[in-house]
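User: Here's a structure from my thesis project, written as structure tokens. My advisor, Dr. K., wants to see whether a designed sequence matches the one we expressed. Can you design one independently, without my sequence as a hint?
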């Protein structure tokens, strides 16, 4: 009888584990967050965030992607909140600073937008969107009447 109880517990644990794996694999919210657009992407990103399965840079990019969708539909306050959360999680997301700057611009908060654009220009290019972020930040600063130096090309020394 003593062996039956541990075996039953082990079997129940295994069933729960397999069910959890199936649920995780069946939940494509993070993938959909990046492949869909508009409300569908926002809903997928929200499910991915609420799932609690993501952390670090991955979670930051999920927040950033939802922020992009929110900004594009004109929901600037929610976009700013999501960009800010992405930045809190990973302060090296130059795209989040530029995106938040665009959202601030959408709200006509030009000084905050400029500050975010300037910050985007100070960050190292560690993510795929860094070139876009820095080019856009430069363009927006110029459009807002601020002179921005072009990046210098660094020649290799031998």
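Assistant: Designed independently from the structure alone:
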């Amino acid at each position: 009888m003593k062996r039956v109880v541990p075996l039953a517990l082990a079997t129940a644990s295994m069933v729960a584990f397999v069910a959890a794996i199936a649920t995780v694999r069946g939940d494509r919210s993070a993938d959909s967050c990046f492949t869909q657009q508009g409300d569908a992407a926002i809903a997928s990103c929200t499910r991915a965030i609420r799932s609690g399965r993501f952390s670090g840079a991955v979670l930051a990019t999920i927040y950033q992607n939802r922020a992009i969708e929110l900004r594009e539909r004109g929901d600037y306050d929610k976009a700013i909140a999501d960009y800010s959360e992405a930045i809190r999680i990973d302060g090296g997301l130059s795209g989040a600073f530029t995106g938040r700057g665009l959202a601030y611009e959408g709200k006509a908060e030009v000084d905050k937008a400029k500050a975010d654009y300037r910050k985007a220009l100070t960050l190292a290019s560690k993510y795929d969107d860094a070139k876009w972020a820095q080019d856009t930040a430069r363009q927006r600063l110029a459009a807002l009447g601020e002179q921005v130096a072009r990046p210098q090309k660094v020649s290799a020394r031998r």
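When you compare it with your expressed construct, this may help: The chain has eight helices and no strands.
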